[in-house]
Amino acid sequence: MAAANAKIKVPEKAKKGEVIEIKTSIVHDMESGQRKDSGDKLIPRRIINKFQCKYNGVEVFRMDMQSAVAANPYISFFTVATESGKIELMWYDDNGEVYTATSQIIVE
Amino acid sequence: MAGNHFKILQLSRRRALTVLGGVACAGLLPAAASATPAEAEAMIKSLIGAAAPAEGKIQLKLPQIADNGATVPLRVTVDSPMTEADHVKVIHVVAEGNPAPGVASFHFTPRSGKADVSTRIRLGKTQYVHAVAVMNNGSVWHAKEEVKVTVGGC
User: Fold this and answer.
1) Does B102 contact A66 at a Cβ distance shorter than 8 Å?
2) Which H helix or E strand runs over B22?
3) Residue A29 sits in a domain of what CATH number?
4) Would you place residue B10 in the very low, low, confident or very high pLDDT band (cuts 50, 70, 90)?
5) ipTM confidence score
6) pLDDT over 90 for what percent of chain B?
């Protein structure tokens, strides 16, 4: 696991039951596998193929991605603030690497 | 005489530039051909099985005109209380004019609170983008939106 080169926006505080928005954007070329280099050879595909959000270890949102997701993937989604703890964001690269970013939330 | 000679030179230089410009453009074009609406439909079938999608429930927000196909904002929302008894399980997004029709699938649980996601996608040319939502009771909903793409980006 590597630290993600990402910008994340997760609320630090929320009321119990509140629906909170999480915004993320990670630096990644999302090489589609359809482009050719100067020597007319196909550049192999290398994208982030999956994004996942875990709230205290439980998956609350997941996105499967194909080459048609733009470079530096931006994702905004929602989740219910159920309890204080850890919100973990994970991006899965084609090359097997997993990038993570973690945020703490206080739920009152 | 000298004036004429100059004119010919100028013309040929302009033509040379045009030809060079054409070569540069061709180099930027995607290598693969586009998918077809039929392929997109087949892809949707493979994702949702035999269920017959009904129109409605989904709001698919895309620009009518995308100047840059390399990054087109997309937002999908589905009317759903997102309770244990009634929630959206997954939304699939398929683009019928891209080299490959698949774009993304968003998976939800009742803990998502609402089915509302935004991202940015690539579109190779002017085409319809489809969204299909599968609910926990097995019902399937469909929406599509046309995007006119000025410069494709795949």
Assistant:
1) yes
2) helix B2-28
3) 2.60.40.10
4) low
5) 0.95
6) 64
CB-CB contact of B89 with B136 (8 Å): yes
Q: What is the CATH number of domain B37-151?
A: 2.60.40.2470
CA–CA gap between residue A57 and residue A59 (Å, rounded)? 7
- B116 in contact with chain A, both atoms CB, cutoff 8 A: yes
pLDDT in tens, B73-120: 999 999 999 999 999 999 999 999 999 999 999 999 999 999 999 999
With CA atoms as reference, report the closest residue to A54 among A62, A42, A44: A62
Mean pLDDT along residues B123-131: 96
**What's the CA gap between B112 and A62, in Å, rounded?**
10
In chain A, the number of structural domains is 1
Say whether residue B122 is in contact with chain A using an 8 A CB cutoff.
yes
**Domain parsing of chain B, residue ranges:** 1-30, 37-151
Summarised one tens digit per residue, pLDDT across range A1-38 is 688 899 999 999 999 999 999 999 999 999 999 888 99
As beta bridge partners, residue A98 has: A92
Q: Print the domain residue range for A71.
A: 2-33+43-107
B44 to A106, B36, B41, B95: CA distances (angstroms): 40, 13, 5, 10
Q: Please check whether residue B78 touches A, CB under 8 A.
A: no
Instruction: Kindly state whether B127 is in contact with chain A, defined as any CB-CB distance less than 8 angstroms.
Output: no
CB contact under 8 A, A63 and B106: yes
φ/ψ of B116, rounded to 5, equals -155, 105
Residue A71 maps to a domain: yes
